[in-house]
Design goal:
By secondary structure, the protein is an alpha/beta fold. The chain has 10 helices and 13 strands. Helix 1 crosses helix 2, helix 1 crosses helix 4 and helix 2 packs across helix 3.
Length: 311
């Protein structure tokens, strides 16, 4: 069976951009019959028509739009690869691509990086971020260890622990479950819970286990990772899991759970074959400094920390 090639994707993109095969042929520097024949071969490979032909030109079919969306990503990646390879061959410092899940240290982390040439990419799911790292879409990943983690998820990667910290609860000031600045998980049994969507929730299994140990099944009413939405719901009486360094707006607090039943581990990952060890070591040092500084965001966490806990 014939295989799809990058030149085929360029041809499909040219037809879509030009709105006609004749205009695309001019741009590509080929004859219209040759491009028409090539387009038919591409459609046979992909199993359907990519364009609807009409008197005013062509427009993509549903399959065409599907292929174009993915073609754009592949062509962009290829351009980035070529540019990166040329810079590498010329000895020019390469931009370091840093991927991360939403963590409160990110702002401080970027500040710590100073003039280092970096690009950052946010990805809500840790597992997806590892895939981006493994395939070279990012060079460094900051993520949380997730439930179901297996050694195969880290194949070909070097993974270091940045920190292990308790998970707090986001709750409204004056909530009856708050006692001396601490919340007992069992006292939240009757509350509505806000959680991230399941594919973004790194501690979903551990959370359910902790609630079961506290004698209840959580009533999860809301799924969101958007802080503003969560804050509105918390103000109305709902509760959520919170990063220990959280600094909620007035009226809301992030407090420790009695006995610290839930913990999360922050990871720093790179590829084993990455030759820029001095640079990534610097980045790791910046992440450590950012994490240490972030503890001061939430006075409840700063007080909780004291000496580093032995875990």
């Amino acid at each position: 069976m014939a295989e799809l090639e990058l030149r085929h994707l360029r041809a499909v993109r040219a037809v879509a951009d030009g709105g006609s095969v004749s205009r695309a042929a001019t741009v590509l520097g080929v004859s219209q019959p040759a491009l028409t024949a090539q387009l038919k071969r591409i459609e046979r490979i992909l199993g359907g028509d990519l364009f609807v032909r009409g008197p005013s030109g062509v427009r993509p079919t549903e399959l065409g739009r599907f292929v174009l969306a993915r073609a754009d990503a592949l062509l962009s990646d290829m351009q980035a690869l070529v540019a990166s390879a040329r810079r590498h061959g010329e000895g020019v410092a390469e931009t370091l691509k840093i991927g991360y899940v939403p963590l409160l240290i990110i702002g401080l982390f970027i500040e710590e990086l100073g003039d280092l040439d970096v690009q950052t990419y946010a990805e809500p799911a840790s597992l997806t971020l590892l895939k981006l790292l493994s395939t070279g879409r990012v060079d460094v990943a900051l993520l949380e260890r997730f439930d179901g983690t297996e050694s195969r998820h880290f194949a070909g990667l070097t993974v270091r622990t940045l920190a292990t910290e308790p998970i707090f609860v986001g709750i409204a000031e004056g909530h009856p479950a708050i006692r001396d600045g601490v919340v007992d998980l069992a006292d939240l049994a009757a509350c509505d819970w806000i959680l991230p969507p399941p594919h973004e929730n790194c501690v979903r299994v551990r959370f359910l286990q902790a609630c079961a140990a506290a004698g209840f099944t959580p009533r999860v009413r809301h799924f969101t990772s958007e802080a503003g939405t969560a804050g509105t719901l918390i103000a109305q009486g709902a509760v959520c899991l919170a990063q220990a360094a959280s600094a909620p707006p007035p009226g809301l607090v992030a407090l420790p759970l009695a006995g610290d039943p839930l913990w999360t581990t922050l990871l720093f990952a790179t590829r084993e074959d990455d030759a820029r060890t001095p640079v990534t070591e610097r980045v790791f040092g910046c992440a450590e400094a950012a994490y240490t500084a972030s503890r001061q965001r939430n006075p409840h966490f700063a007080r909780w920390c004291g000496p580093a806990p032995a875990r």
